[in-house]
Each structure stands twice: as structure tokens, then as C-alpha cells.
Amino acid sequence: MEHVRLVIITGLSGAGRSEAMRVFEDLGYFCVDNLPPNLISKFAELLQKSPEVQGAALVMDIRGGVFFSELQGSLNELDKGQLPYQILYLEADEETLIRRYKMSRRRHPLETQGRLVDALRKEKEALRELRGKADVIIDTSGLTALQLRQRISDVFRLDGTQSLFQVRLVSFGFKHGLPKDADLVFDVRYLPNPYYVEELRSKTGNDEEVDQYVMRFPQSKETLDKLANLLTFLIPQFQQEGKPQVTIGIGCTGGQHRSVVFANHLKDLLTQAGHQALVEHRDLDLRED
User: Fold this and answer.
1) Each residue of 46-77: pLDDT tens digit?
2) Would you place residue 289 in the very low, low, confident or very high pLDDT band (cuts 50, 70, 90)?
3) What is the Cα–Cα distance from 281 to 21, expressed in whole angstroms?
4) Which end of the chain is more exposed for a tag (fewer CB within 10 A), N or C?
């Protein structure tokens, strides 16, 4: 099985599993939707006999009904056989899921005679333990299909870098909410704000003038040094935990200036240190009032 990367895609109904499977197909994975859990071991045996398959993805969800309760036992069998696999768990907030179901005009698998919201909460509770075992959790509430595709591709693409631990740096504005999937969040709102400099207000942290303004202050340079040192210490700890990715949020007021500058600089420093670092400016297209 060393030549095969096996990924189990699961999570809440309406959170984007179908879209995720399409992404895995485009990445070259052999994909199976809604395979009964008691067939996972047999599927793994077939993969061992198929050297041309580099990656396989299984979509497992609440549609499996009684079969879904057997999933944990099947995963235990994979563990005993030392067959490597990863779990990708997709979720979204309740409001988003309700809106998606109303738009699609589809019924939730658990929605029989009760309300949709009751079905959503029942499913979330049923998947609580499985979520705790997930290697990668993606909250799709505020993601476009393109952003979800990029997130999955960053972590699961089948190339020579797929085994490298990835550090994802997300700049954001506190006024727009925290990144729900962040493992660490740092607040840089105490630094001088370019928003109050008229000629910089309409620019972003990707512009050289804003970068130079933010980093000219001693407290900015000291903050960057301390954050870089802290992350240099923490990243190996996350690696030892067995997770393929850690998400670090860098926040300022609106997500336009200071957080963008710091995310860019941290990405460069971590890359220079040999880490695979990715940067995402979540709120860059949202203009300040």
C-alpha cells in the first residue's frame, strides 16, 4: 500500500462532499462514492494489486444508514493491517447548510418527519467522534467552489511534495470573523494601522508602500521575529501529531493591511526555513468602510 494514498472523505451533508470528490477525480484519484464501510478492507486489498493507482478516495457519509455505524470497525481493521489512510472531514455552519438545502431543493438524508434543522443537528452529533479522528477539517461555509478546490489540491495533490507537512497562513479581518478552521490565531491589531494614512488606505498589504510602512516600526519587526521563532518551535510539534497541515490565522481589523503583510513575511521566512508554506488572504476583496 505504500504506493497508494488512501483518503476517506466524510462530513456533514451539504458541506461539499460531492464537489470534493470531483476535485479528487481531477487530481488523479480513483474515487468511489458511498461505499459500504464493511467493504473498505476488500477495497484496500484490490488497491494493493493495482500498482497503476496512485491515489484512491472514498466518500463515506450518513447515507450509508446502518452501514455507517460499521465505519469505525472498518477503520480499525485498516489500522491493524497497517494500511495508511487519511480522513478529510467537511463541515459548514448551520445557517449555510440550511441555505444550501433550500437552494438545491433536496431533502436531508435524516429528514423524515422532523425539521431540517433537527436532521442537521442529529447528523452532527452522529459524526462527532469521526470528526475527532479527522486528519484535515475544512469549513466550507465561506468558501467558493474554486477556493475549496484549491484547499484540497494544496493538501492532497499527487506529486513529489504530497508527503511534506504544509503550513497554511491565512490573513483575515476580525470584523469579518475568525477563520473557523484555524489551529492558531495571532492578533496584530496593536500595530500602527495604514488605514489611517490617507495615501495607503486604498492599498493592501501586498503593495510595497504598505509593507514598508508596517515594517518600519520596531514593534513590527520584533513581533515578526517572535512569531517566526514561535512557529519554528511549534511546527515540528504539529508534525509529530501526524497532521498533514496546520492553519495559522493572522488577524487585523479589516484583513487588508497589517495581517496581509505579516502573512506574506511569515510565509517567506518559513519557506526559507524549509517548510512548505501557503498563504491565503481571506478578506482581501472586502474593502474597509
Assistant:
1) 877 777 788 899 988 776 555 566 777 788 87
2) very low
3) 25
4) C
Nearest Cα neighbor of 44 from 64, 63, 34, 58 is 58
CB-CB neighbours of 102 under 10 Å = 10
**What does the alpha-carbon distance between residue 271 and residue 281 come to, in Å, rounded to a whole number?**
17
Query: Among the residues of 163-250, which ranges form H helices?
Result: 198-201, 208-215, 218-241
Residue that the C-alpha cell 514561535 belongs to: 230
Q: Which amino acid is present at 159?
A: D
Q: Within 13 Å, how many C-alpha atoms sit on residue 163's CB side?
A: 6
Question: Which helix H or strand E contains 97, and what residues bound it?
Answer: helix 94-104
Are the beta carbons of 256 and 288 closer than 8 angstroms? yes
Paired residues of 89 in beta bridges? 10, 137
Model's pTM, two decimal places? 0.59
Residue 93 CB-half CA count within 13 A? 9
Report the C-alpha gap between 288 and 274 in whole angstroms. Answer: 35
Burial of 54 (0-12, 13-18, 19+ CB in 10 A): middle
Q: What are the cell numbers at 152?
A: 484540497
Longest dimension (CA), the chain: 65
Burial 236-253 (b: 16+ CB within 10 A, else e): eebeeeebbbbbbbbbbb
Average pLDDT over residues 202-207: 95
Where does residue 143 rank: exposed (0-12), middle (13-18), buried (19+ CB within 10 A)? buried
Residue among 252, 285, 250 at smallest CA distance from 167: 250
**Which run of H or of E encompasses 6?**
strand 5-11
